[in-house]
Amino acid sequence: MDILVYFGLPVLISFLVQLLIGCRTKRKVLQHIPLYAFIITLIFAGVSLCTDSGFLMGGNIIAAAVWGIIGICILLGYGLAWMVQKFL
Fold first, then answer.
1. Residue 51's closest CA among 69, 39, 42, 63?
2. What is d(CA 18, CA 80) in angstroms, rounded to the nearest whole number?
3. Are 80 and 15 spatial neighbours (Cβ–Cβ below 8 Å)?
4. Cβ(51)–Cβ(14) under 8 Å?
5. Read out DSSP for the chain?
6. pTM of the complete model
7. Which of 84, 82, 77 is nearest to 15 (CA)?
8. Separation CA 8–CA 83 (nearest Å)
9. How far apart are CA 88 and CA 79, in angstroms?
10. Residue 53: its pLDDT value, please?
11. Which conformational region is residue 58 in: left (phi greater than 0), alpha (psi within -120 to 50 degrees), or beta?
């Protein structure tokens, strides 16, 4: 259930944000909000990879991988919203 919350919720949120705001606005800045969120998750992954976590060896690598997967889920939601808007 936790995996569904951690990885399914970013897909749903980015899908709804892109479908309800991004596809209907005329402003170029607001048309790609999930892409900005993807860039932010990559920044968080880089920061978590470079910091000393104080845990066992590889703890920060796992955190960076989780941030990367969340970013991919955001891109998946963005792509799904784009496809729904384009084909329906």
1. 63
2. 9
3. yes
4. no
5. -HHIIIIIHHHHHHHHHIIIIITT---TGGGGHHHHHHHHHHHHHHHHHHS--SSSTTHHHHHHHHHHHHHHHHHHHHHHHHHHHHH-
6. 0.86
7. 77
8. 18
9. 14
10. 67
11. left
Digits of tens for pLDDT over the chain (88 positions)? 788 888 999 999 999 999 999 988 888 888 889 999 999 999 999 998 888 766 666 778 888 999 999 999 999 999 999 999 888 8
Nearest in space to 49 (alpha carbons), one of 35, 62, 33, 30: 62
Q: Which residues contact 77 (CB under 8 A, 6 or more apart)?
A: 10, 11, 12, 13, 14, 15, 18, 34
